[in-house]
Amino acid sequence: MERIMLCDTTLRDGEQAPGVALGFREKEMIARALADAGIDELEVGVPAVGESEIKTISRLAALHLPVRLITWNRAVLTDLQASYRTGVEGVAISIPASEQQIRNKLRKDRAWVLEQMGQCILNARKEVDYIVLGLEDASRADFIFLAEILAEAERLGVKRVRFADTVGILEPLKVFFTLQDLVRMSGIPLEFHAHNDLGMAVANSLAAVQAGFKAVSVTVGGLGERAGNAPLEEVAVALRYALSEEIDIDLKCLNTIASLVSLATGRPIPRAKPIIGQDVFTHTSSIHIDGLKKDFHNYQTFPPETVGRQHTTSFGKYSGRKSILRLLKTKGIELDQETIDKLLAKILRRACEIKRVLREDDIMEIVVSSC
């Protein structure tokens, strides 16, 4: 089975998130962690930002990590010339594809876009080995124009075309049924770049893969502008367990990478964040806990060990008698039925008062004070 490429843009699109600014050491640690985990490609910045960015990217390129490094560029020759100075293996050349952006952002027409695109691609072919053509706002572009761009990109020797849902307007059914036609007419691999404005970045990315796309753009934790991008950890696990797709990344590294990015950006990981959140493998309901004890598959989407985690239990409003008895048994404590009933009532009352799950030491404090 042909594997799906995961193309990480945490160090470019992720760093465009409000308030995020990464120094070289932080970028190096993130890049090394992603490369060690087996990511296919890293988009590491925008050299046109200035000399400081060029220097940072050059230092990343000098590390010779076992992963392809590319930079992001407008379809402007000066942007590309700045990229060539960094020593990266490839460049992404981005062009607006929708009439909205061509006319109302560039103040140009389609003919100008195709001409500028062609000049930049031909120029880049002299300097780098790998060229990605990014179609900005492709989700609102005219299908006939997209087909024209694809044909020209293939003729000019582009290695991959990135279809960007720049404003996050798509939904999975439209992605699946519409983009199949793009796949059929394209002689080069297509990449889907999702934004999460409507909360559908992961679903849209999977739908694109089901439609035939061979690459998905991701960021760690979904970091990115506005509502962010498709999260690496969610896409990777969903590809493996929902679609049974082949990917190279080591899933056990995802939590470590997410923690690293969280520390570097100062953005805490939400407790219920899929895959990497503190609570996503924690069970409080006595019904769930009892079901897990009988067979993990009763309440298990996939084995948490595959992402370096494990099932845990906690005590809250919906924790029942079995949960308490199980804890007491592990502590070698035996109580009569009346005491158990009183203890359970106190535990439930305490959980409601403090509005959080109770830890084992919280439970044992109640036990000691009740006996």
From TrEMBL:
Pfam families, A to Z: HCS_D2, HMGL-like
CDD domains per record: DRE_TIM_NifV (cd07939)
Pyruvate carboxyltransferase domain segment(s): 4-255
Keyword Acyltransferase on entry: yes
Acyltransferase as UniProt keyword: yes
Enzyme class: transferase
MF annotations from Gene Ontology: 2-isopropylmalate synthase activity
Protein name per UniProt: 2-isopropylmalate synthase
Gene this protein is translated from: leuA_1
